[in-house]
Design brief:
Aspartate Aminotransferase, domain 1, binds pyridoxal-5'-phosphate, 12 strands, 16 helices, Aspartate Aminotransferase, domain 2, 402 residues, alpha/beta, 7-stranded mixed sheet, 2 domains
């Protein structure tokens, strides 16, 4: 059998996801290194002037400049595309640069976008502030209602943009229903899949056109680097996304790409264990707090939908206390093990108060509309022993009288 050196896609593309996560996209250099090499270089030298000209003319394959191509970054892009089941992927410097590029590269003045109301705070800034500034109108809908997207669509509508599960209310969007409606309406879907990652949910299997990531979250998974990615058809990536990213420059560094490559090797293991831990901690909290939004618990109104489109429900959920910001902050200040931190997807357990952190920049009436109340807390459950996490929550809840 032919040895895999990573160069021959006919060998590698049939591997199953667990194999892709460890080996997908690997390209060995002349030294035969087992772990992917980090190519920390901004430029590349050519054998002759004719080669340089041929590369710029697109007549010769090869690297020209690291804003445009880098071998380590390309390995990551291929690995994510293989995991996602996408034709192509482009990595970016952060999740927000991925979202911005995915939207702006295909929109122009006069276009219209329909977006889910529960979005990451900065994504709401894109839809509510940035796009309108350039003459692109947005309508915000309750993404739990598939028909609401179609009802808000007009003849200028180009995109439907949403995340599922949504941050931080854990709303679930029916991927199959929404993507099918989008096709009927002749509109493209852009899905922010940061919470689930391809290990738990592959939106393209349900008909999504473009899937964008904050790879900072579960893909790195150990709170080390910022990174992002956009997946789509080869045509979309080459002809729409690449002209935008190459010329505006939200490039991922080779070092950060390498860290995410290492993260992907353990993504499946981590996300499964963290999902199990989050269920255990969620079951404990459900008996102690007034409200919990955890798609893995039968009390979540979209529990069945989550179970039908996700392998497991992931490490993140939110819950509410009745005493508003004062009681929510008091709970955070009583924690001994779980960190007060607004990151997610980390192997450490982290808790934040969205209204005063991740959604601080969202106007109060919009926060209320999104379900980000003053008593809402979001928890990312890590890889610690869940019994220690439950002990920590138990003593903190007692301190605030719950
Ligand atoms: C964190 C996050 C982003 C932004 O990603 P960065 O890597 O922080 O730029 C976008 N969408 C969702 C759902 C996120 O959780």
């Amino acid at each position: 059998m032919k040895r895999n050196t990573g160069q021959d896609r006919s060998i590698t593309q049939h591997w199953r996801p667990a194999t892709q996560a460890v080996r997908g996209g690997t390209r060995r250099s002349e030294f035969g290194e087992t772990s992917e090499a980090i190519f920390l270089t901004s430029g590349y030298a050519y054998d002759c002037a004719g080669d340089a000209a041929a590369r710029f003319a697109g007549e010769q394959s090869g690297m020209t400049y690291s804003r445009l191509q880098n071998p380590t970054v390309e390995m990551l892009e291929q690995r994510i595309a293989l995991l996602e089941g996408a034709e192509a992927c482009r990595a970016t410097a952060s999740g927000m640069s991925a979202m911005t590029a995915a939207l702006l590269c295909q929109l122009e003045q006069g276009d219209h976008v329909v977006a889910g109301r529960a979005l990451f705070g900065s994504c709401r800034w894109l839809t509510d502030t940035l796009l309108p500034k350039f003459g692109i109108q947005t309508t915000i809908v309750d993404a739990r209602d598939a028909q609401a997207f179609a009802d808000a669509t007009n003849d200028r509508t180009k995109l439907w943009f949403f995340e599922t599960p949504a941050n931080p209310t854990m709303d679930i969007v029916d991927l199959k229903a929404v993507c099918a409606l989008a096709r009927q309406c002749g509109v493209r879907t852009v899905v922010d899949n940061a919470f689930a990652t391809p290990a738990l949910q592959r939106p393209m299997d349900y008909g999504a056109d473009i899937v964008a990531y904050s790879a900072t979250k579960m893909m790195d998974g150990q709170g080390r680097v910022l990174a992002g990615a956009v997946c789509g058809t080869e045509d979309f990536i080459l002809n729409e996304l690449l002209p935008f990213t190459r010329n505006t420059g939200p490039t991922l560094s080779a070092f950060n790409a390498w860290v995410v490559l290492k993260g992907l090797e353990t993504l499946d293991l981590r996300i499964r264990r963290q999902s199990e831990n989050a269920l255990e901690v969620g079951r404990f909290l459900e008996a102690r707090v007034p409200r919990i939004n955890h798609p893995g618990l039968p009390s979540h109104p979209q529990h069945a939908l989550a179970a039908s489109q996700m392998v497991m429900t992931g490490p993140i959920f939110s819950f509410e206390v009745d005493g508003g910001r004062a009681q929510a902050h008091a709970l955070l200040d009583s924690l001994g093990l779980i960190d007060i931190s607004n990151n997610i997807g980390d192997s450490r357990s982290l808790m934040t108060h969205p209204a005063s952190t991740t959604h601080y920049g969202v106007a109060e009436e919009k926060r209320i509309e999104m379900g980000v109340t003053e008593g809402l807390l979001r928890l990312n459950v890590g890889l610690e022993d869940p019994a220690d996490l439950i002990d920590d929550l138990d003593q903190a809840l007692r301190k605030i009288g719950l």
